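Because discrete structure vocabularies remain unfamiliar, we first show an illustrative case, written as a sequence plus integers encoding its fold.
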Amino acid sequence: MGVLDGKAAIVTGSARGIGRATAELLAANGAQVLINDLDGDVAKQAAEEIAGETAVFAGDLTKPGVPDQLVQSAVDAFGRIDIVVNNAGYTIDAPIHKMSDEQYQAMLDIHLVAPFRIIRAAAPHLREPAKKEREEGKEVFRKIVNISSISGTMGNAGQANYSSAKAGITGLTKTLAKEWGQFKVNVNAVAFGFIDTRLTAAKVEDKQMRQMASMLIPLGRPGTPEEAAGGIFFLCSPWSNYVHGQVLNVTGGQFVGMTS
């Protein structure tokens, strides 16, 4: 018996990194999981390697209509949606005076607009069952977890675009928590610090930079994708039913921004 038996989850950007680790953890605890990536072959391979019931959706979540297709794919595969983890993303770094409109907008599109559209598309599948349950006097909790970053809470040199989007996701999270609490949809965010993934690896190839990063982290090292997934899993689990509208910092104790 898993604590997520009978639950269906969407995890965006789940073929690699933190998303993959999250999908594996949710599936290991009984959830059906929709695996998503821009690259369909990578998504399919991940789904085949993850133990448990999975489905696959490949597509560019920044394109209008694609978030709706993502949600419909989950409903078609599993018949329901109980958990949405908005994890997909990447970075394009540059100082403000050298950043283009396209670079700025790209980060807003993937980290803020796409989650908004996914949540909006999922609304009927999260709210309507809750209305019936409320009439029957039942409490059934569903979960939305948005991925943020301490770049969004502390700022980070070279990441005006990314930091703006991640700050925005906090506002979206807290607003949605106020709107959907009545439907027992827990809405929270996780703000990550330095997690060792292929995306962060490119930024810290310099040994000196990696040493400096470790010095800023009281635990003395970056986190692993599996450790990052643990924070997400908690917010997807029954143990977080009274945690609502919060931003969980998963940083190893780091509470200062890094330089790029």
Observations:
- The chain is about 45% helix and 15% strand.
- The longest strand covers residues 142-149.
- The domain at 8-250 is CATH 3.40.50.720 (Rossmann fold).
- The beta strands are 8-11, 32-37, 54-58, 83-86, 142-149, 185-192, 247-250.
